[in-house]
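fyi for ur records
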Amino acid sequence: MRPTLRRICRTVVVTLTLVLLLAVIVFVRYNVDWPMRYELPAGYRGWVIVKYEDPTCPPMRSQGFYWVIRISPGGRACTSSETLHGWTYHRLEYVDPDGTRAVAPGRLISYGNKGGLLFIGTEEELRDSWRTVPR
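which gave:
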């Protein structure tokens, strides 16, 4: 017996509902937060310090699914927004003056307590830079 269009639609709706319900449960149960995107000046290398909950700074802006923080050419950023809590995906992007974007090499080193510390560069550059970690 061939499935009817109605049966196929019902199966798709039930499947999508279950997937959405599972996503909500994961976000709530495992304390998952919205993803974060750090926008860096093209070619930036070195340490980055992000300060949160500073009332003299603008709030984080959202763009699509991401919370966005723009990093200054000096490797600093601040926001009046709260530190995100829970597991968060962090994306590092170079942004050229013309708006062209590229993934930046690097990683999050420390996060929380009203601040974040990132390193932009290769693993070798990171190993060579530990003596210059901002305090």
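The chain has two domains: 1-30, 36-132. thats all i got for now
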